[in-house]
Design brief:
single chain; 440 residues; alpha/beta; Gyrase A, domain 2; Four Helix Bundle (Hemerythrin (Met), subunit A); Rossmann fold; 3 domains; six-stranded mixed beta sheet; 14 helices; GTP-bd
Length: 440
């Protein structure tokens, strides 16, 4: 159980050994504790070289010390950072000394960021963006995370919430003070015109959720097709290493194999699957079941077939894009393009550049209509959908009373508020902050 009256500390600079170890301290005793360790505090937000000692006078190390009196700090509390040499023994001794102070304890996962949220320094979207920024592996993931941490998306949601709140206020004023001269009688007409506009804005924004999730989680590309169509060879060619076992024996691949690629700054998750055919062999049938399940969840299916045989275009429960690929062009005449979108050979590399460009073109097409101020998590999508549905009920329920329609507007605003954490979201916080590292 977190106690925000405690002073917390943690190594915030990553794994050891390292060139530098940064220990972060935050809480009511942060500056006093730091003062004891270093003798005298430097001016706020100015680094000073200090000797760090135990309370018994034993030298731990010499390093840089910075202080950040609250509320002008990351957490909004008094905070300090001690930069020491990144050896395991040095950092361990410093952490042990900090733990000996009364009211000081090691921080839990994400506790610094949670305190920043609790103290109004960040909202929930910005906190999630920070977690995504730390985890970002591609350029587009970094850009999306920066967009969220910068507060632009939060500002958009807060503006929408303000419009909903103002609409409710005007409707309730018309209900309560209909006989007063200073309350216009047709306020609701203006309100509903704006709510129809807001409904369109929300719908357009929600349409970008698929792309936002692709940027954050990766474009899911599944290689499917008959046995010996060259699926595993293509997987190895795209990975530029031997990921999958390749043999002449049909049915070699039994389970789903997965690798992550970085294509033009986008994360792409590539899956190799078992060959699709009718079989009575138990293990192979399970591999085919898993292959079809993975294909159904894909964004794109690369449907492979040896040149001369048709590529499968229909997959159960899949309604996305299928790219038909004729394989083994090194031993077969190139198809005229009627049966395949692309012909290639994993052995010679022919067609790989064209496949790469097809994937890039697909990503650019998906991104063309959107900025990166996009919802990128299932939580965002769910709450935006709830808000849009409530707003839709408010707009279309013309036969209902104004009081009922105002309640629908309240529900729409409540769902938007839950995205940024502006309403009670205590049940979400433990899950979200558990994703963070200890020092963040």
């Amino acid at each position: 159980m977190q106690d925000f009256n405690d002073t917390i500390f943690a190594l915030s600079s990553g794994g050891l050994p390292a060139g530098v170890g940064v220990v972060r301290i935050s809480g009511p005793e942060a500056l006093d504790v730091t003062n004891v360790l270093v003798g005298s505090l430097p001016k706020p937000r100015q680094a000073a070289l200090k000797t760090i000692r135990t309370r018994n006078g034993l030298v731990i190390d010499r390093g840089l010390v910075l202080t950040f009196p609250g509320p002008a700090s990351f957490t909004g509390e008094d905070s300090a950072e001690i930069h020491v040499h990144g050896g395991k023994a040095v950092v361990a001794m410093l952490l042990e000394e900090l733990a000996a102070f009364k009211g000081c304890r090691l921080a839990e996962h994400g506790e610094f960021s949670r305190r920043a949220l609790e103290n109004g320094k960040m909202d929930l979207v910005e906190v999630e963006g920070l977690a995504d920024l730390i985890a970002a592996e591609t350029e587009m993931q970094r850009r999306l995370a920066v967009e969220h941490t910068a507060g632009g998306l939060s500002k958009l949601y807060e503006d929408w919430t303000d419009r909903l709140t103002r609409a409710r206020a005007l409707i309730e004023a018309e209900l309560d003070f209909a006989d007063e001269d200073d309350v216009p009688g047709s306020v609701s007409d203006l309100v509903w015109a704006d709510m129809v506009k807001l409904q369109s804005e929300l719908s357009e924004h929600l349409a970008g959720a698929d792309f936002g999730e692709i940027v954050r989680d990766g474009l899911k590309v599944v290689i499917a097709g008959a046995p010996n169509a060259g699926k595993s060879s293509l997987m190895n060619a795209l990975a530029r290493r031997e990921v999958a076992i390749v043999t002449e024996i049909a049915g070699t691949t039994r389970d789903v194999l997965h690798i992550d690629l970085n294509i033009e700054g986008y994360a792409v998750k590539l899956y190799d699957t078992a060959g699709l055919r009718e079989t009575e062999e138990v293990v192979e049938r399970e591999g085919i079941r898993r292959a079809l399940k993975t294909a159904a969840e894909a964004d794109i299916i690369l449907s492979l077939a040896e040149i001369g045989t048709p590529a499968q275009t229909d997959f159960p429960e899949f309604d996305g894009k299928v790219i038909r690929i004729g394989t083994k062009s090194d031993i077969h005449p190139i198809d005229d393009g009627e049966h395949y979108d692309l012909c290639m050979s994993s052995s010679t590399g022919a067609g790989l550049a064209e496949l790469h460009q097809l994937l890039v073109s697909d990503l650019l097409t998906r991104s063309a209509a959107f900025s990166l101020a996009l919802p990128s998590r299932l939580r965002h999508r769910t709450l935006l959908t709830d808000s849009l549905e409530a707003l839709g009920r408010a707009v279309t329920s013309t036969s209902a009373g104004l009081d009922m329609r105002a309640e629908f507007l309240r529900q729409a605003a409540h769902s938007l508020g839950r995205i940024t954490g502006r309403v009670d979201v205590e049940d979400l916080l433990d899950v979200i902050f558990s994703e963070f590292c200890i020092g963040k």
